[in-house]
Amino acid sequence: MKNIKSAISISVVLSMCVGLSGCINQTQEVDHYRKIIHAYPQPMPRKVPHVLTLSTALRMANDNNETLAIAGENYLQAIIAKDRAFANFFPTISLAPTDYQRRGFNETQFPPGFGNLFQTHYFDTPLAASLNVNILRDSAAISAAGSYSGVQKSLLLNMQSDLLLETAQTYYAVLSAQRAVQVLRRTLQVEHATVQSTIRKQRAGVTLRLTVLQDQADAARTRVQLTNAENSVQRGRATLAFLIGASSLDHAHLLNRFRMPPHVPAMKSLDAIALADRQDLRADKDKVVVAEKQVTVAMAEYFPSVSINFDTFLYKESFPSDSWWNGLFTVNMPIFEGGMIYNDVRTAYSKLRQAMLEEQMLKREIHEQVRIALSNWLSSQELIRDTRTEVQAARAAFLQARHSFKVGLATNLDMITAQDRYLSADLTYQQAKYATDVDMLNLLRESGRLTYASIAQLARTHRTAPLAIATPASDDHGTVTKSTK
User: Fold this and answer.
1) DSSP 3-state assignment of 116?
2) Are 420 and 190 in contact, with CB atoms under 8 Å apart?
3) pLDDT the model gives residue 339
4) CATH code: domain of residue 262
5) Which domain, by its residues, includes 438?
């Protein structure tokens, strides 16, 4: 009985050890990918500040958006798969205590003492260890799993860039819609004044009823545009709140102080930057490496595998009592597998060719995307110059109309109309500036440089030194300065 209790105690202790080894530190697990996206150790709070700059919005999206966390879990699972593949080189050890009970042996039909040859009760605590390895196959599988974790890491960083760009696009869409609301409200005031003036003229008999109806239609169309613009603001703010992980932006004021650089690198330099830094291209390159190693894994199935089994007892009462261990060593040589291994190798080579084609196609896509992004940015620069000229002319006309009104050479309607044209031209100019900012951020994205490092520099205070396009810097309001150095 004492021996039985000691064996049970040993079993309980071993079970506790196994249970403790299964405890998972989930915070430490999450930190694997939080460090990569730089949302560790102090992520941005979800509370939206009263003044929401672009840099703050991007940092909140980086830290709080669940999309990145989901991609991060994919990366963590790839790391776990690598550890799991490495575990094939470790033996499996199991403990199975056995308590055997049976009825007493009836000796009436047998010689006296015959029943002593059969046990009616015993307690054993066997310990079994087994190992089955194919060194070439398992080594290649570990290497492939490590490369696949690199794929998931690159995909995580690529998704981070996509999220940052989407957040910036939404941020500027809200600013543009808010500016449109301001201008449309002033335009609607002008058109209401125009309708009242036309009605007075129609009553005086100096204009037609048709003119009144046309002015009323113009005012109604502006009201529709104003309603749509206000709806765009609400939808945009709701989308932006979702992207940055906030409940709402009801009391947040969006403030844009993002300045663009006068120059960017040439197309050839941008191509080289993109091919070196695009995370999706890195992922495709790693996929090719994974596919190559999977070919090795498939071909290694032709090589023998080794199995080792070893059994012993921590405690034993069963017959024979002097036999405490046994071992078995097996070598498995595949002779005929019905073409299974052959077709696995064919499949592995096919996936390798597929991965190489995907990498080649992505390189051409990157060249196209960088060229289009650069063209869009250059076009937006031209548009800014043209709209700036328009704003200057409209402002001069408004000042002239206001001066003429003061000296009695123009009506109040003339001054309001000139002011409406000035506001409309300014709206076009501001929207062109927003589009230029988005085009520059898109160029950073397509060249692979819209990263957390960029966001971190956007948050730095009083930083105005010129930097290359690869590392945008700003003050605490999100103002960016860059150069081609």
Assistant:
1) helix
2) yes
3) 87
4) 1.20.1600.10
5) 2-104+119-481
